[in-house]
Amino acid sequence: MSGAANSWQAVRAEVLRRIRSREWAPGQPIPHEADLAQELGCARATVNRALREVAESGLIERRRRAGSRVALHPVRRATLDIPVIRMEIETRGEAYDFSLVSRAEEVPPPAIRARFKSAPEARLLHVVGLHMADGKPHALEDRWIDAQAVPGAGTTDFSQISPNEWLVLSVPFEGGDIAFSASVASPAEAEALGCPAGAPLFVTERATWRNEKTLTSVRLLFAPGYRLHTRL
Amino acid sequence: MSGAANSWQAVRAEVLRRIRSREWAPGQPIPHEADLAQELGCARATVNRALREVAESGLIERRRRAGSRVALHPVRRATLDIPVIRMEIETRGEAYDFSLVSRAEEVPPPAIRARFKSAPEARLLHVVGLHMADGKPHALEDRWIDAQAVPGAGTTDFSQISPNEWLVLSVPFEGGDIAFSASVASPAEAEALGCPAGAPLFVTERATWRNEKTLTSVRLLFAPGYRLHTRL
What we know:
Largest sheet of chain A: 6 strands, antiparallel
Oligomer: homodimer
Domain HTH gntR-type (chains A, B): 5-73
Keywords (chains A, B): DNA-binding, Transcription, Transcription regulation
Shape of chain A: elongated
Protein name (chains A, B): GntR family transcriptional regulator
Order of helices and strands of chain A: HHHEEEHEHEEHEHEEE
Strand order of the largest sheet of chain A: 4-5-6-9-8-7
Number of domains of chain A: 2
Pfam family, one (chains A, B): GntR
InterPro entries (chains A, B): Bact_HTH_transcr_reg (IPR050679), Chorismate_lyase_/UTRA_dom_sf (IPR028978), Tscrpt_reg_HTH_GntR (IPR000524), UTRA (IPR011663), WH-like_DNA-bd_sf (IPR036388), WH_DNA-bd_sf (IPR036390)
Radius of gyration of chain A: 25 Å
Strand content of chain A: 35-45%
C-alpha cells in the first residue's frame, strides 16, 4: 500500500486484495485492528471503518469475542421488505380488491400436515382468495391456519379483509421461513388468474411460527409478469 | 389491560390491538414510552421492549428524534443471504463446475445500455456461462460488465472462475438492486439447462453499482425445481 494509506477506501482495497489472493484464506482469522493499523500506517478507526464495510458485504465474519475471520461462505446480503399485498397494490396507485374463494375447516394434505406437525385427522382452517389490482387478478392466496394457535382466526370470515393482511396485523412476529420459486399455471390456477394454462408463475411460500409451533402456511401464486424487487 | 400489565408480551398484545382496531391509525404518532408505561401500569423498559418487538415486525416505524408512529405500510422484513453459486452448491455436498459459454466485447441491447447509461456504440464485456452441480445444469449466467469501471475484468478470461464468484471477491460492495421473477425456458435456454422448452424457470436479475455507476448486470436462470430459501 502506498501513501493513500490513511483513507478507509485504500485499506478496504488492500483487505479485498488479500482475501482475493487468498493471502488471507477463507476461515482464517484476520489480524487485530491495532496491528493492521500499525502495519498500514493509519488510524485504528480507519481500519475499523474498512473492515466494517467488508463485513457488510459478507466477505468477513465479525464475532464479538472471537475476533474477525475471512468468511468461509461469502454472501451478498439483501433486506427484503414484504408488504401487505393490499398496500403493495395501493402504493402503485391501483385499486385493491380481495375476493374470498373458499373458507373451510379441512384435514390438510400430508405436506401441510407435516409442516404443522398436526395429528392425522386434525382439521386446519383453509382459506383461498384472490387479490385483485385495478380489477385484474394479482395473486392467488392459498393459506392454512392453525385456528387453535391464532386467536380470532376461527371467528374471522375473511370476506372483508384478506388473511394476508389480517395475520400481519394480528400475529406478533416471531419467526418464519420463506421460499421463492417458479411454477406453471395449472388449468384451475390459470382460470383464477386469468392467464393461459402453462404460463410461468412466480411463487412465494411462507410459514410463520411462534414457540416452534407453525401458525400459518401460505402459497402465493402471482399473475404472469410479477417481479419482486429489493435493494442489495 | 388487566393485571398482566407488567409483562412485555401483554403490552405488545395491547399495542397490536390498538393498531388492528385503528385506535392508533396508520401514520399516526404513538404516545411516548413514559406515558404508555404510566397508562398501562408497567415499567418504561417493558414498554420499550414491547415497542421494539412491534417495530421489528414492521408495524411501527421508530425514528430517532421524531418519535414512533404507526407504519403507513407495514411489512414483514426478511434478510436474504445471496451466496456465491459455487459455495451454495458445495455447501449442499455437490460437486461444482463452471463452463464458460462465451466471452466477448459487444454493443449491448437497448435495455442493458439504458441500465449502464452507456453511449450508443460503446461496447461492454458480455460473459455467458453455465453453473453445474454434480454434472447437471444448475444455473445459466448471462452477465454484462463495464470493464472500464471494474479493474481486472478486461484481462480475466473467466474460464477458471465464474464472473459471479470473481465479482463478489473483486468488487467492493456499494449498492445494487435485485428482482425475482418467473420465466419459461426458450428453446436455447432449455438446451443449455437440459430441460424441456416452456419449463418454468426462476429468474434473478441483479445490478451492482458504485458511485451511481452500474458496474455489472446479470440475469441468472435457474434449472427447474430451484427454490430460494430464507428466514423471516
